[in-house]
Amino acid sequence: MKVTAQPSADTLTLILDGELDASSAIVLDTELAKPDILEYRKVLVDCAKLSYISSAGLGVFISHLQRFQDAHVKLVFFNMQEKVFNVFEILGLDALMTIVPSATEAEAA
Length: 109
Hints:
It is built from five helices and five strands, in the order ββαβαβααβα. By secondary structure, it is an alpha/beta fold. It has a five-stranded mixed beta sheet with strand order 1-2-3-4-5. α1 (25-33) runs parallel beside α2 (55-70). The longest helix is centred in the middle third of the chain and has 16 residues, at 55-70.
């Protein structure tokens, strides 16, 4: 999996490309653990090219969720494929995390 970071004024967009499983979760965890990520008001996660997410991948987001909330950084997922969204929904994570259909809605969230 590839993670591309696109910073702007107060928003960081992370573009996920590929499969987020136990072996690639380390790449995402490293990106989310960077201290400067807490300087942004929002972290938007573009999931358009995310074709699969495992429990390890979900665990990475969950492990950083409290840190983001404590720093008042909004984490927003968008462009999520239906099969990936279903994983979030089955586990009830759609109620815990902000998931919107498009980039426009993610920026407005």
